[in-house]
UniProtKB/TrEMBL annotation:
GO terms for molecular function: carbon-sulfur lyase activity; pyridoxal phosphate binding; transferase activity, transferring alkyl or aryl (other than methyl) groups. Pathway: Amino-acid biosynthesis; L-methionine biosynthesis via de novo pathway; L-homocysteine from O-succinyl-L-homoserine: step 1/1. It catalyses: O-succinyl-L-homoserine + hydrogen sulfide = L-homocysteine + succinate. This is O-succinylhomoserine sulfhydrylase. Belongs to the trans-sulfuration enzymes family. MetZ subfamily. Catalyzes the formation of L-homocysteine from O-succinyl-L-homoserine (OSHS) and hydrogen sulfide. SUPFAM superfamilies: PLP-dependent transferases (SSF53383). The gene is metZ. The modification N6-(pyridoxal phosphate)lysine is found at K218. It comes from Kinneretia aquatilis.
Amino acid sequence: MSEEARRIARATLPEGLRPETLAVRTALPPSQHCENSEGLFLTSAYVQPDAATSAQRFADSEDFTYSRTSNPTVRSLEARLAAMEGTEGAIATATGMSAILLLCMGLLKAGDHVLCSRSVFGTTINLFAKEFGKFGVETTFVSQTELAEWRAALRPNTRLLFAETPTNPLTEVCDIRALADIAHGAGALLVVDNTYSTPALQQPTRFGADLVMHSATKYMDGQGRVMGGALCGPNRLIKDVFGPVMRTAGMVLSPFNAWVILKGLETLSLRMKAQSEQALAVARWLEARPEVARVYCPALPSHPQHELAMRQQSGQGGAVLSFELKADTPEAARAAAFHVINSTRVLSIATNLGDTKSIITHPATTSHGRLSEAQRQAAGISQGLIRLAVGLEHVDDITDDLNRGLSTLNSL
Ligand SMILES: *Cc1c(COP(=O)(O)O)cnc(C)c1O
């Protein structure tokens, strides 16, 4: 670092800064050009001044040698993420799924057992059950909210407990502290997928989780542009376990995507708060509609884990909600849901979330479309269920858009 760069903002931050400040300021020190916005280092290799320095840098992985090992933009993102989650370290990955891949490659071997909530993201279930099953790692799926099921399913070889809270699309909330106690009592680690709440609302390690996993594709980027993921936790795992696996397995985040996500984090707490408040307003509006049978949103007092959610999520429900339309048969429910979705003229019909653009989804035929009808029923995903990931449009334009279909359902 140049002498001038050493003296300017963020080169060394004072202690005790608040999360919003850390989200804007934490990064590697600036280069000799003293750029204010963090630099984007699109380079695969780093030139070494001489062979002896090169040898020393290859021996000490803290220095930059090759971007599968480390990249300054990616390292800035990792520093900012760790600061926001309140963990010692973080390691960025190409996608959310590759963060779980890195987790399992780092911590598991044939003969190990995993306990996982039945309500986690569908691809996560496939990765544990199908892909890791092939390598002799067995996974048991249990209820998101029944702690007795988690305790009863523990085995002497259980290494990991994996949960996501709130879940998609039914917004079930699990008690992180209680799951951490169960994991630690059995000598296992608790990993929490914090994609939905983000550290702006929920820091799972404060409640005893050992590792936090993210799909940065969602709220961290926040504008639907790039894919990314991360694991956050203590350095004995991040640096000593996952770092070496990453160097050999190579599911690294591209520097460009890291830079986009780094910029997204600067507005994360504003967006999470605004989008959560909009989601609650839409949820209240839906709850008052005669066409709607039930609304799932942790911020509503009618939510079964409302108090727990408010305690864990800084008093916010998050920006994803679901609602179920009244109907007599599954066929009528599906027709009603398709009518409400097809009547929108502003919302995006897509299967993603965490965007400033509100997104409307029919889970039974998209994210949960490959399940049998019986599996879908067991998961509580009815044909009349609609998921809404609330963005930043004016809230009245969102409810007006939903009203186009709701108010014309009797014409079906
Ligand atoms: C999207 C998502 C993932 C997977 O992340 P990708 O970035 O799409 O690989 C994992 N968990 C949750 C909760 C998600 O929403």
